[in-house]
Design a protein that fits this description.
The protein has 135 residues and is mainly beta. Helix content is 3%, strand content 57%. It contains 1 helix and 9 strands. Strands 2, 4, 5, 7, 8 and 9 form a 6-stranded mixed β-sheet that branches. The longest helix has 4 residues.
Length: 135
């Protein structure tokens, strides 16, 4: 669990589009979501809010290649007149189809979460569970 002055990505996984259902096997080229569970301490947000950037790479471990890469970001606002509370969010990034792989390839998700508030920067990374492709 991160502290009051920390930001971290706790987990990342591939999920069926629009759900939180993890993927074990996926049809080649089918769209899916990447879900990231993140936590940002109230101390970081108390400087006037914080900006985050979530960067995601879908890797093909069978061919040592990148299948997809993208980033998304936004601002986490401060709660006026109150000590900012720790924020727990579930961030979602869509991986559109089609994408290429071979039958039986092993894919995984690598994610980096960067939070900036004033001069304070916190970066963490995590790798999700592997999943398989099928035709």
């Amino acid at each position: 669990m991160p502290g009051f002055w920390d930001a971290t990505i706790k987990a990342v996984y591939a999920a069926d589009s629009g759900t939180n259902d993890t993927i074990n096997v996926i049809d080649i080229g089918k769209a899916f979501d990447v879900v990231a569970d993140v936590e940002v301490g109230g101390g970081i947000i108390s400087f006037g809010g914080a900006d985050y950037l979530l960067s995601v790479v879908i890797r093909n471990q069978s061919t040592f290649s990148v299948v997809f890469t993208a980033s998304t970001g936004a601002h986490l606002p401060i709660t006026k007149g109150q000590t900012s509370q720790t924020v727990n969010e579930q961030l979602r990034l869509q991986v559109p189809g089609p994408w290429n792989a071979d039958d039986g390839d092993v894919l995984d998700v690598l994610a980096t979460f960067k939070v900036t508030s004033g001069n304070f920067v916190n970066i963490t990374t995590v790798t999700g569970s592997a999943f398989l492709t099928t035709s």
